[in-house]
Amino acid sequence: MEFAFYICGLIAILATLRVITHTNPVHALLYLVISLLAISGVFFSLGAYFAGALEIIVYAGAIMVLFVFVVMMLNLGGSEIEQERQWLKPQVWIGPALLSAIMLAVIVYAILGVNDQGIDGTPISAKAGGHYAVRALCSGGRTGVDAAAGRPGGGVPRRS
């Protein structure tokens, strides 16, 4: 899964760079979808299946529909439509198609590499789990608030 992590990370970086540098908003949104799918692939490769699924459902699904709706509501005029025809030549689709094909290969690789062992590890009691959760919250829970407020030492991890 380390291979899938690096490939998905590289695709996310490349697609995000294209989102930032592309002048056409529709094409930038398509690259943003590829970037979000690559980030979900990173989550899947790290074993965070729920976070990866939420990334696809919430961001690549719902929020991207909203973005596309807003862009389409801009209602391009006649000169913009001709400009779109010039931009939508087949060679324009080589980049997104290549990144999508690599993502598909990584997803197939990840699906074929999954074993049916499920979650393994040592079970712990609810009391011990609560103790660890409270300890983690007390030790570093304020760090984000301190950093957001600009306090000195806000980014320094604490020990309890």
TrEMBL record:
Gene Ontology MF terms: NADH dehydrogenase (ubiquinone) activity; oxidoreductase activity; quinone binding
Function: NDH-1 shuttles electrons from NADH, via FMN and iron-sulfur (Fe-S) centers, to quinones in the respiratory chain. Couples the redox reaction to proton translocation (for every two electrons transferred, four hydrogen ions are translocated across the cytoplasmic membrane), and thus conserves the redox energy in a proton gradient.
Cellular component annotations (GO), alphabetically ordered: plasma membrane
Reactions mediated catalytically: a quinone + NADH + 5 H(+)(in) = a quinol + NAD(+) + 4 H(+)(out)
Family: Belongs to the complex I subunit 6 family.
Topology within the bilayer: Multi-pass membrane protein
E.C. code: 7.1.1.-
Record-linked InterPro entries: NADH_UbQ/plastoQ_OxRdtase_su6 (IPR001457), Nuo/plastoQ_OxRdtase_6_NuoJ (IPR042106)
Pfam families named in the record: Oxidored_q3
Enzyme class: translocase
Transmembrane segments: 28-49, 56-74, 94-112
Official protein name in the record: NADH-quinone oxidoreductase subunit J
Keyword terms, alphabetized: Cell membrane, Membrane, NAD, Oxidoreductase, Quinone, Translocase, Transmembrane, Transmembrane helix
Protein localization: Cell membrane
Oligomeric form and interacting partners: Composed of 13 different subunits. Subunits NuoA, H, J, K, L, M, N constitute the membrane sector of the complex.
